[in-house]
Amino acid sequence: MSKVAFTTLGCKTNFYETDALMDLFFRNGYDIVEYDEFSDIYVVNTCTVTHVGDKKSRQMIRRAKKSNPNGCVIVVGCYAQISPEEVREIEGVDIVLGTAEKADILYHLAQYQSGKTDKPYVAVSDVSKVKLFEDISETVAASAHTRAFIKIQEGCNQFCSYCIIPYARGRVRSRSSESILEEIKRLATRGFKEFVLTGIHIGSYGIDFEDKTYVLKDLMGDIHAIPGVVRIRLGSVEPRLIDDAFIEALASMPKVCDHFHLSLQSGCDAVLRRMNRKYTTQDYAKAVERLRKLYEAPSITTDVIVGFPGETDADFEETVAFVSSVAFSEMHIFPYSKREGTPAATMPDQIDATVKKQRSERLIQLAEENKEAYMRHFIGNTVSVLAEEQKDGYMIGHTTNYLKVHFTGERAFQSGMMYTVEILELNDGKMIGKAL
Predict the structure, then answer these.
(1) Residue 42: which domain range?
(2) pLDDT per residue over 96-128, tens digit each?
(3) 72 and 10 in one domain?
(4) Interacting residues of 344 by C-beta distance below 8 A, sequence separation 6+
(5) Which residue among 62, 99, 116, 124 is least crowded, i.e. fewest CB within 10 A of its CB?
(6) Nearest 5°: CA angle at 330, between 224 and 314?
(7) Which H helix or E strand runs over 373?
(8) How far is C-alpha 345 from the chain's CA centre?
């Protein structure tokens, strides 16, 4: 039996797609092994959001050849789509597949193995011309019988000035609701409790349908009605999605988790305009206000880019003031990384790396303080925890607002079981509790 190994860089959508590719190979008779093991085939699912992503992708390609110099290395993902000629020149690469080609990975592998093609074998098409959602396979769950990622759409129409993703993933293509609901029904009958809706820009779900009346909140409503679904968790969304109509829909769906990752990127309106973001800080604050009126203590998380071209000290201070006022439960801080082919790459007033590092460190410190304050809010309260694993004498799982809880209890551990847990303390950054 031939062996295949996988490694994944980047976003949750990439992890979803790797799981689907694993399932595809498994159903076709391949043995799935760990990436550091000897394997006949190595699949590297790459990321190109930053230059760091490119660098890590190259490292993983070289690592495969160390495990088996004669192994076939297949490179897929955003780096392969954006820079196929660069990827094909990396020593050890055998096959390069674009965004639209990875669904046919077994076909392309067979073409390469036939020996009738050029080597390295490259199949990368113009993803901007792809009109339909590429449904690779059903999802494999992130953790057994607890949480499953469900990819509901592909592509992005936003074209933020710093972002390469629309060029790597193409325009918005929504997956049919029938396909999504059937997959969730199948997984729910197998015992999965929580479903994470993911994609490149999930707030755009349905905009490409001929009948544009079926959008994200309608899909969520249909998922909510499926027996066995306990939790529905949203991936990253933009604040414009959180309008009065969306809040009204959320109010009727208690299975939706009170955890919202709202993309911010900057707390300064002038920077947001240069980024080509389609909202203001006032819009963002209004979205947060709506969520906090509906939920008692929702988890509001975000991403912030520091050192965007032209960001002055005053601009940065506006961001600091804004994120302080919102008091996020968690922030991911990224120094701006220039991506060739995007408008921001040629903008004047590029920021010095030392300044970006200083600004990043300041926001990271603020993020850590806010995260701890949010976690401490729950000490002495009871929360619902979906158990996922057992380690070091603790049962471990996540709350609806995505807080990780370590807890003990008299009942035997069972993955996928819901526990009511009293939070006792915060110890070295860990929430410690006891099942009631």
Answers:
(1) 3-125
(2) 999 889 889 999 999 999 987 778 999 999 887
(3) yes
(4) 161, 162, 274, 275, 308, 309, 336, 338
(5) 116
(6) 125
(7) helix 353-376
(8) 24
Both structure tokens of 245: 């109509």
CA 397/CA 391 separation, integer angstroms:
11
How high does pLDDT run on average in the chain? 92
Q: What is the pTM of this model?
A: 0.89
Q: And the tokens for 380?
A: 């002495």
Q: Is residue 240 part of a domain?
A: no
Strands of 3-8's sheet in order across: 31-33, 3-8, 41-46, 72-77, 95-97, 121-123
For CA atoms 406, 411, 415, 421, give the dihedral sign: negative
β-sheet with 259-261: strand ranges across:
259-261, 299-306, 330-335
For residue 252 the two structure tokens come to 């009727």
Cβ 44 vs Cβ 72: under 8 Å: no
Number of domains in the chain: 4
Angle at 31 between CA 27 and CA 32, to 5 degrees: 95
Q: Looking up tokens 């370590």, which residue turns up?
A: 406
CA atoms within 13 A on the CB side of 240: 9
CA distance 277 to 334: 17
Strands 72-77 and 41-46: parallel
Is 42 within 8 Å of 30 (Cβ atoms)? no
List, as one string, the DSSP characters of 305-369.
Answer: EES-TT--HHHHHHHHHHHHHHT-SEEEEEE----TTSGGGG-SSPPPHHHHHHHHHHHHHHHHH
Last residue of a domain, one of 125, 146, 176: 125
CA 165/CA 159 separation, integer angstroms: 8
Backbone angles phi, psi at 379, to 5 degrees: -65, 130
- Mean pLDDT of all residues in 248-259: 97
What's the rounded Cα separation, in Å, for the pair 66 and 432?
42
Residue 434 structure tokens: 């006891």
| Residue pLDDT, tens place only, 162-194 | 999 999 999 999 999 999 999 999 999 988 999
Tell me the residue type at 435: A
Last residue of a domain, one of 377, 397, 419: 377
